[in-house]
Input
Amino acid sequence: MSALTALIISATSLLAGETSDGIRIQQVPADLYGSVPLDGFIDVALVKNEKLTLQDMLQHQALFAPIEGHDVNLGFVRTSAWLRFAVTLPAGVKRPQDILLSIMPNFTDELEVYVGVEKPGMREADFDRFEMGDHSPRLNANFNTSANVLPLELFPDQTRIIYIRAHNKDASLNVSAELLSPSYYDYRSIVQNLVRGMWFGGMGVLLVIQLFFFYFDRKKFYIFLMLDILAVSSTYFGALGMARLLFFDNGGLGNDYLSSTSSWFGLTAGALSIRAILDLDPRYPKIDLYFRFAAIVGIVGVFCVLFGVNRFFVLLAGPVILVLTTMAMSVALIDFLRQPNAQTGLNSAAFGLLWAGLIATNSQRYGILSLPSWVAGSYAATSITHFTLLTGSLAVRLRNAETAARNADRRALEAASAAEQHANDLVRERTGELVEAKLVAEQALCAELQAQEQQVRFMEVISHQYRTPLGVIRTNLQSIGLTLPKDDEANRQRLDRAHTGVARLVEVLEVNLTRSKLQGPAFQPALSEISVSNAAMSAVISARDLLHGVTLNVSIATDVEQAFIRADSEMLKLAIINLLENAFKFSAPVGSTQVWLDVFRDNETVHFRVRDKGIGIEAEVVEDLIENHTRGTNSAHIEGTGVGLSLVKRTADAHAGRFSLSSGKDGGTEATIVLPVLA
Output
């Protein structure tokens, strides 16, 4: 006989009766396969006194009233629900019948089942007491791994009287009783476990997907969505009794803490993930403010659970979540109507399903509508669908972002290539002009004051012409750098080299312009109080940009760091650069790249001494070398005009100091600028 035929026969063969106390009796057919409906056979009594015992209820049978179905949905109340009903075998059955009493949901805190054989004047001692609920240790009678199931053995000509007391401290009070045959219960358990396994497996896959998305696209909403998935999974892990099986076998408040804190934390994670995914902050600041409020409510709820006052705060959860999901659904729908595409369509469907699941589940759990117990599981189905649709939406978003990034990279590379080519052409053009200008400048240096004035004007024009294209090049290089991916090291190194080249070119122009001005007729310093160490380091920084390949060793004495002089910073800087440039230039023929700058104090003077290991000074008189246009005989093969030392001498004189030039102790040359220190 098929299972369906057996169910039909069993359903049509049920007969009703009553005990002497008026308890309605449900008959269980022999050889049952399936479930025995208790609709119309259950009486319910609601009492606020938690200390009432079974004996008290036996003495107050008038408290019980019949209900139509087999579900009791009271919402968040402090009352205890007592259920009673009776079961028996039909007349003529000769052998005992095994049957299972299943009581849902699995997260009921206190669950007591009393089973006795009907007889006149029954007292509490005539009943066997079975303690279930997640606050109590699991009994051997509760043979299922996670559900509240009690095996009953029905004997012929006996009627079993069953009383059930259910009480929840911090959750909604929902009780549903059902009678099942053992074989059918095994079948249904297998199906339920498969469905639960697929649900938890699907949630795990969705969680891992968020981690992969976050790896490729470092957006915070992936983390929030992952935490939301984890919170929902943890809530159902406790609500289905699985956490009690694995971690809280001895009962207690552990399962309550897990389920309640997970539920509140899910509110926080959900609010943060939704506001980030829908980008509420810039677009809908007032709605975003409510989502921030909901996130704070979730955090407060976690603390309420830990401090044992959750039942006074939990009533706020339903309205807050309802308003939150309604707002999210409305925003997603508006986005879809304004810009219909795959991403907005998936978002709209995701939040619409979530809203429908929450409405159905809360209506059942809060006792707003008389709905069967299975409706409470609608949120589980809609939540995994919601997360799946959101994941699909984020995948579309990530794909669009990658496409946009690739297009931006392509355009940036094309622009960089064009800019590089333009820069190369410009550098070649300007380099040719600079070479020509240098020749003109060197010829002008040998002329009279009128020729020097013409050189100054010429260099000012050249510097002005270079600033604009160099500024354009530098700006484009910076823009290209901003668009390059972080891991594009090759192109970033090319940009760094271009930046360095531009900086060096700018320094060459500024130094030559300053030289031209100081070598002209207007050799008048603009004196001000400056730090000795700052003046030295300013010259060092410019020299390092100007002199490529030099190894510059700088030594600044401690007593100089707080010393000040009265000088023209730019004029002094150029004088030091001239000495460093000469030292490096006259060291190159002997293969040396080492140049030393020593800054030290001697009584009331400060010394800027430049040393090298170059070709040194031959037999020439030092004073002749300092004169304008005079060069040593051993430096004829080295490029130069001979005006550098003259400029340094004029600078020292203009600052009330002195300049000296001598051969080094170990070869090479020592050049020293001596200036008075301010008191």
